[in-house]
Amino acid sequence: MTPDPIARFLSAVAMLCLHMAASAAPCVEPPADPANTYDAPHTYAKLAPRYPAIRIASAALPVDVGRVADLTYAQLGTRCLKLDLYLPLAARADGGMPVVVLVHGGGWRAGFRAEFAPMAVRLAQHGYAAVAISYRLSGEAPYPAAIHDTRAAVRWVRDNAGLYHLNPQRIALAGGSAGGQIASLAGVTGQLDRFDPGAGEGAVSSAVQAIVNIDGLSDFTAEAALKYEDDPAKQPSAAGAWFGGRYAEKTALWAEASPIRYVRPGMPPILFIASAQPRYSVGREQMAARMTQAGVANRTLVLPDTPHSFWLFDPWLQTTVDAMVAFLNQQVPQR
Fold it and tell me: What is the domain count for the chain?
């Protein structure tokens, strides 16, 4: 595609966004929370002494990737839920680009969608449209609001597939840390309407065709998970704040939110990418074994000598993207 068509495309998208903004009811995002410090710079300051060779992955846009920012994918009263869309700028004459919806981490109570901008850029360079979403954090809305929001973002992708040349039949969910658990749960429950208030007769599906869980829990109820997630010294723990109570108080919710509970034939295949810190992916091995027994494709990549949040940094981000692309090329192939 030459620069002129690229410019025309981005101009058309910008005009459409302005029209949509003008015609929609006013809505806002909450103000920035100074306590929300789960981002690459703060994490780098913690990790650099042990890993001096790492560097924060760049989110700069190369010439072959376009970005459409601050699109509202859902509105709850006056509350906007927004996403950023990253698009390959190569011409496509087929059924559209496969899509990866990216869910940020932060212990269900922190984090920013910009965390996944570097990954989104690199996925777009491989021919995948990437959608980085914000969702309601636990301080605003407890479980299962984040699952509802993620499913709504998938539906937005399908609703707008024609506008952005996306393939509505090739959508994957991916996330890191808490976002990995959210993406996994939203993906494995795609057939269950109770996790999706927008479901119903005539509604566009929010099911996905593949999942990438990066260092996210698969079982909240396992002893190894409860050691950290239900630590009595934390009042509350990150998971306890999300569920609105400790495990003994909200046992059913802790179990319901565990992706391992939904293994079944026909579920989406999953790529597990894990750090060298096993506490963050408790239940992964057991879930993968159950998936294999059910005949569902799965793959696990454990990156040696890595901290949690490795995907924010080079050189690990490129390894992560390469593994994702290889997996997605099999499960949601480009045409």
Answer: 1
Distance of alpha carbon 242 from alpha carbon 247, whole angstroms: 11
* Structural domain that includes position 296: 3-219+258-331
CATH of the domain at 164: 3.40.50.1820
Q: What is the DSSP letter of 175?
A: E
User: Which residues, listed in sequence order, are joined to residue 28 by a DSSP beta bridge?
Assistant: 79
SS3 state of residue 79: strand
Assigned domain for 231 exists:
no
On average, the pLDDT of the chain sits at: 92
The DSSP bridge pattern shows strands 166-176 and 129-133 to be unpaired
The Cα 315–Cα 54 span in angstroms is 7
Do the domain assignments include residue 227?
A: no
77-to-24, 25, 32, 105, 324 alpha-carbon distances in Å: 12, 9, 19, 25, 36
C-alpha to C-alpha distance for 172 and 195, rounded to whole angstroms: 17
- Helix crossing, 316-331 with 117-125: angle to 10°? 50
Whole-prediction pTM:
0.92
pLDDT tens digits, 188-246? 999 999 999 999 878 999 999 999 999 999 999 999 999 999 999 998 999 999 999 99
pLDDT of 53 higher than 50 = yes
What is the amino acid identity at position 329? N
- pLDDT, tens digit, 9 for 90 and up, residues 104-124: 999 999 999 999 999 999 999
Among 15, 157, 163, 134, smallest CA distance to 76 is for: 134
E strands within the chain?
A: 55-56, 65-76, 79-88, 97-103, 129-133, 166-176, 210-214, 270-274, 298-302, 313-314
Amino acid 18: pLDDT: 44
- Using the 8-state DSSP alphabet, how is residue 28 labeled? B
Quick check: bond before 144 cis, omega within 30? yes
